[in-house]
Structure formats: structure tokens, C-alpha cells
Write a structure and sequence with these properties.
10 helices; 249 residues; alpha/beta; 12% strand
């Protein structure tokens, strides 16, 4: 049983920042190499899910980890409030449309898990509805892996409450971060304990496991995410296709 209250948002005390940054650079470069192999191989795709409370560094994770990847073969999608058309369909309808085809990396900045998080926190759906949606999410992710070789890597960006406050305050005090400020983030912060309970439910009821990623120190976040993705792609034993013909002149 995962207990978030027992997990720190900080890296291990003896973990070297300098060494982590060196390794992260190697991992991001290796990730780019593996991405090229996946594009050429054409048999696999990768879905990366970043989920975390406001200020946990989802945008920064995308920027840092995929800095060396080929831009044309990676997409990032951020799920906002559903449109009128999306509300008229089941909750996974808009998600399925954004899933990657073979050879692609798709990143979800927030995801379908919002439908069992924020809606549960505010009591917009019943507990029975939450359980049914969670079963649907598990079946959906298993379908992606089984039916399309879409490998799902999920990262819960774990920040301590005090550090989240610091992140939100920076958006008020730093002119370069004004654009990130949203009064609603402070409103949602008032529901911290409920959010942590709902995240705990998701982490403990997912069939495809999450990587709990401490993010108080962003360099440690980048290290964990890049390392995990490289290990996943290396496990696929990706190979470049053989040359079928070569005609000259």
C-alpha cells in the first residue's frame, strides 16, 4: 500500500546533484537515440503521463527530459476542462484521440486521471462512479499496450505542501512567471488533503504502476524521469529495419 504521507518530495540526502545532472544529460541524449530507433522501427509507441498537483513541475519535466528528442515525432497535450462536444461523449473519448500512433511519443500534461481526481475532490461524481471509471482507465491502458504496442509510463510528480506554496508564490513575485499565475490554484490548494487521498487511491488501484517522482528539487525529477524512460525503451530491444534494396545510377 502506497502512503504518500510517508514519502518525501526531496531526493535522498546522499544523492549528488552534480552526478545526477551529468547522468540526466546522458539519459536525455540516449532517449533521443532510442526515439530515432523507435521511429525507424515503426512497431512501438510511447505514452508518457505526467500527473501532479499545481506547481509540481509538469511543464518543466517536458522541457528538460525531451530537450534532445526529434520535435516532429513527439507531441504534448494538456487536458483542460472538456468542451461541450467532449462532455457529450464518454470521458475517455477525447483521450483516445490523443494517443500516439506507432513510432510516436505522446506526452500527457495532466490526463484522463483528472476525471477521478478533481471531480472526486469536489464531489461532482459518486464513489461508485469513481470505481467504474478507474476500472475503465485500467482497461483502456491495457488495451493500448496489448493492441497497439503503446507503452505507458506514468509519473506522479510528488511535491511537499510547503514547496508547492513556494512555487505558487514565485508566480506572484517573479515577473517572468506572472503568466503562470492562476488564482484558482490557491483555491485548489485548500483541498490538499482530499487531493492526496485521491492520488493515493489512483496510485494503489492502477494496474500499470506509477513512478513516484519527488520534485522538490527539479534536477532529481529530471534524473528519475529520463532514467525511467530510457530503461523502458531499452527493454524493447529496438532495431533499425534492414535495407530492402539499394539501386544506384
Amino acid at each position: 500500500m502506497i502512503e504518500l504521507k510517508d514519502i518525501s518530495g526531496n531526493p535522498p540526502k546522499d544523492f549528488s546533484k552534480e552526478e545526477a545532472k551529468k547522468l540526466t544529460k546522458k539519459y536525455t541524449e540516449r532517449l533521443a537515440e532510442l526515439q530515432n530507433a523507435m521511429i525507424a522501427n515503426g512497431k512501438h509507441s510511447l505514452l508518457v503521463i505526467f500527473q501532479g498537483i499545481d506547481g509540481s513541475g509538469k511543464d518543466g519535466a517536458v522541457k528538460k527530459v525531451f530537450a534532445d528528442c526529434t520535435p516532429s515525432n513527439i507531441r504534448v497535450y494538456s487536458f483542460k476542462k472538456p468542451s461541450k462536444e467532449e462532455f457529450a461523449h464518454d470521458f475517455l473519448w477525447r483521450v483516445h484521440k490523443q494517443c500516439p500512433e506507432k513510432g510516436m511519443i505522446q506526452v500527457f500534461n495532466r490526463s484522463h486521471y483528472e476525471d477521478v481526481l478533481i471531480q472526486r475532490v469536489h464531489g461532482w461524481i459518486s464513489e461508485e462512479h469513481v470505481e467504474k471509471r478507474m476500472k475503465a482507465i485500467n482497461a483502456f491502458e491495457e488495451l493500448l499496450e496489448f493492441d497497439n504496442n503503446t507503452h505507458v509510463c506514468k509519473f506522479f510528480l510528488h511535491i511537499d505542501k510547503s514547496d508547492q506554496e513556494s512555487q505558487l508564490r514565485e508566480r506572484i513575485e517573479d515577473p517572468e512567471k506572472y503568466w503562470k499565475h492562476n488564482d484558482g490554484d490557491w483555491d485548489e490548494r485548500q483541498h490538499w488533503d482530499k487531493y492526496m487521498d485521491c492520488y493515493k487511491y489512483v496510485l494503489n488501484n492502477s494496474k500499470i504502476p506509477w513512478t513516484i517522482t519527488p520534485v522538490n528539487k527539479r534536477w532529481y525529477r529530471d534524473y528519475i524521469v529520463s532514467k525511467t524512460l530510457v530503461e523502458k525503451l531499452e527493454s524493447l530491444n529496438l532495431t533499425y529495419p534492414e535495407l530492402e534494396s539499394a539501386k544506384f545510377g
